[in-house]
Amino acid sequence: VQLVESGGGLVQAGGSLRLSCAASGSTLSINAMGWYRQAPGKQRELVAAITSGGGSTNYADSVKGRFTISRDNAKNTMYLEMNSLKPADTAVYYCNAEIWDVGYWGQGTQVTVSS
What we know:
The chain is mainly beta. It is 0% helix and 55% strand. Strand 7 (67-72) and strand 8 (77-82) form a beta hairpin. 29% of the residues are buried.
């Protein structure tokens, strides 16, 4: 499966962005999906995850109430709606898809939040 993220960019604090992750290839085998991020000098961390049917989601405490994860399986696309962005949200955001307990990654998209 191939994953391509888009939607990153530069935004002022308090602003919003919507990230997309388009999947291609063996998309019928995709189970859970998630968004991760990695800031300079820090480890990659889970931001949000969603089950195969979209019925269950979970979020990092730092983004609860501000970010919303969703997926459209008909379009093979996952989204991350990010509101009330903070400078601490600055990172490269990666899409992850789980297939038979193997994780696949996109190339990442940069999100920069200026103060």
